[in-house]
Amino acid sequence: METCKECDCSIRISSSAYPDDATVIAWNLSDYKKKMKRLITALGLVALIIGPVACGKHDVGTTLALLRHKWNIVSFNGEAYRYTGKPGDYYDFRADSRLYAYYGGLFDTLVYISINGGKSLQLYNIKGGKRLDGSFELDIEKLSSSVCILHKCQGPPFCVLDSLSR
After folding, report:
1. Which of 60, 124, 140, 156 has the smallest number of CB atoms closer than 10 Å to its CB?
2. What's the predicted TM-score (pTM) here?
3. Residues 31, 86: one domain?
4. Are residues 72 and 52 both part of a single domain?
5. Which of 97, 127, 125 is nearest to 112 (CA)?
6. Is 90 exceeded by the pLDDT of residue 44?
7. Do 90 and 9 fall within a single domain?
């Protein structure tokens, strides 16, 4: 039994009885497996620690920074409700997590929360300044400095697509 110079695992070298056969090397796999498990575990821990810090927080912050503006309503499209925005219609996402809306001559105020790592919004109705139970979610399909598309399908026949612009 000898020791491998590269990884310190044990190897057994045996020569064949036939001169034309190549040398056979049998590794002591238990040493190799232990080292690979340690490496994989270490890499996994690094990914778990760095992943959410590197991706999650930055995405939510970026999403909220892009979202928190006054948006013109282009259209709402649902199964039973279709609305084309008119001049003066808006969604105003504020830093206090309130969404102020005006469309079709009506005002509305909702509370919004960024969820799913900044990929969705959870919206709540308000009554008397307090958030009511029950919410609905909209996925952020597209968000840039000039376009916001919010979308949610909760199975047929209910789908919503809100299109906003700045």
Report:
1. 156
2. 0.61
3. no
4. no
5. 97
6. no
7. no
